[in-house]
Each structure stands twice: as C-alpha cells, then as structure tokens.
Design brief:
The protein is mainly beta. It is built from 1 helix and 9 strands, in the order βββββαββββ. Strands 1, 2, 5, 6, 7, 8 and 9 form a 7-stranded antiparallel sheet that branches. Strands 3-4 form a two-stranded antiparallel ribbon.
C-alpha cells in the first residue's frame, strides 16, 4: 500500500491516516506523570427531543443539550510520589470537605516525528473515579489503574 497525503492534511502533519497508538497526555501541574497506555471518552454528542407534529405523523428531532462523556485514562500502577495520583486521592479521599481543585487535560495525537497533529483539551477537569483493573493469577499482565475524569468543556484544537 502506497503512502499518500490526505487532502485535509496540513503541511508537516505526516502520513494519513494517523495511527492511534502514538499520543501523549498533559495535565496541568503533573508534567512528569502523564504516560498512559489508553485514553478513551473523547466524545461530543447532542441530545435530542422528539417532537410529534399533530395529524401528520411526522417526528422532528429537536436539539436539547450538548453532552460529553468522562475521560478514562489507563496506565501502569504508580507509586505514592505521583503528582497525578496525589491530586486524585486528595479529591477522592477528602469526602468533598474542601473545594475541588480542577485542572486542564490535553490529549495530543502525534505523527511519526512526534509532532502534535490533533489535540483535544478538557477544561475544569477533576477525577471522579480511581479503579484498579482486576488481578488475575492466570495472566502475565502488569497492574493497571484507571482514572476517570469529568470536565466542564471539551474542545478540539487542531
């Protein structure tokens, strides 16, 4: 299969389509603690309401609200010195007795040169779940933790 540039590719973006395995995540205040094996939840959705016009059997779908799902970040379990883990535990263990410290989360899809081609930013983000993947004595996997983060707004930058 020959490599070719897509018509929507910007100069220097790399060959298209972009692979989904070369990405990075940056979280404000956690610069050295952002290596993840999987990111999911980059979704935009408009909820609609059905409106039936009387007598015509026509159904219209009217837009109501814009909805996004939570981000889920998966990575190998880290030690207690992790700034990201400290932020998560500080919120999840405090039983909401203090105001929640929000952060900005950026997800960057990279080309083969390591240059950002596509980018998403979740603003006013905070963790809502910290979960360990199941332990299984019949498999030879590393221990994985999942951090679920909700946010106020998701923007696609590039």
């Amino acid at each position: 299969m020959a490599n070719s540039k897509g018509t929507g590719a910007a100069q220097g973006d790399g060959d298209w389509p972009l692979p989904a395995f070369y990405f990075n995540v940056s979280i404000s205040g956690c610069a050295d603690d952002t290596a993840f094996q999987e990111v999911s939840g980059l979704e935009f959705q408009i909820e609609t309401e059905e409106y039936r016009e009387g007598g015509n059997n026509l159904v219209y779908h009217l837009p109501k609200t814009i909805k996004s799902s939570n981000l889920t970040l998966k990575r190998a379990v880290t030690d207690k010195a992790s700034k990201l883990l400290s932020w998560c535990l500080g919120i999840l263990n405090d039983e909401l007795s203090k105001p929640i410290q929000t952060k900005s989360v950026s997800i960057n899809l990279l080309n083969e040169k390591g240059t950002t081609c596509k980018s998403w930013t979740a603003s006013n983000a905070y963790p809502v779940k910290l979960k360990m993947a199941p332990f299984n004595s019949t498999q030879n996997d590393i221990a994985i933790e999942e951090i679920e983060i909700c946010f106020h707004h998701l923007k696609r930058n590039l």
